[in-house]
UniProtKB/TrEMBL annotation, chains A, B, C:
Origin: domain of life: Bacteria
Annotated InterPro entries: N-reg_PII-like_a/b, N-reg_PII/ATP_PRibTrfase_C, UPF0166
Pfam families: DUF190
Matching SUPFAM superfamilies: GlnB-like
Similarity comment text for this entry: Belongs to the UPF0166 family.
Coiled coil: none
Name of the protein: DUF190 domain-containing protein
Amino acid sequence: MVRVYLSESDHGLKPLLKCLHDELKVRGATVTRGVAGFGASGVVHGTSLVDLSADLPLVLEFFDRPERARAAIERIKDFVQPGHIVSWSVNVESSGN
Amino acid sequence: MVRVYLSESDHGLKPLLKCLHDELKVRGATVTRGVAGFGASGVVHGTSLVDLSADLPLVLEFFDRPERARAAIERIKDFVQPGHIVSWSVNVESSGN
Amino acid sequence: MVRVYLSESDHGLKPLLKCLHDELKVRGATVTRGVAGFGASGVVHGTSLVDLSADLPLVLEFFDRPERARAAIERIKDFVQPGHIVSWSVNVESSGN
């Protein structure tokens, strides 16, 4: 599982999704919009929960086989700031594991 | 931790939640709606971020003890398409680990 | 990666975010609002997906180095009910791992 942290002000989501879909052909990807958060910049976004901030966090996640996930991370790491990609191992139900 | 990928057009969420709650009695479950994504079908949903698509991704997650989570996966795997359930190990704070 | 389960009715989010940001200075945090879910209380929230419940689940996540994440869990565990904090190991891209 690979998670990429973006923010709505990045405008980085569309090219990243396009790369994952068209070029890397990962099995699937989901993007979730946070309702609050802060990052290394120290800015707290949307803690009021009614703040219609234009800079809420976006979290993109996808999973694929380990070697493909690793290659995808290498390919996309220039799309985002350092330290904004995390990954962990998961079992996929259909693999029998 | 068990994650199940659904989409809004599946109409599979309610029976799945009901099964998890009434029959399997897992400790808790949360459902998050994605704002964009694509799946094995190759369809990109909502990348415009203003697209009020009726088919956005839904991500259901729950956690329980490993043997109970495993049993739950076996029970619910017929609710969803193959490869749409992933799981990974987590530590729970109250367990002292 | 540390995940904390809250609900909108807790009013615990703001003090928790403040603690994570001001005192623990974790690298970042994101908060996501679920669209449905249930907890140990057995209450099912928002399964209709149009229910404008005031008590939807909130999921706060942050990551940091293992020893800092551990310390953060110890600090924040009194903010939430037992069993509402889970954690798992992740690789961060910029670490070369």
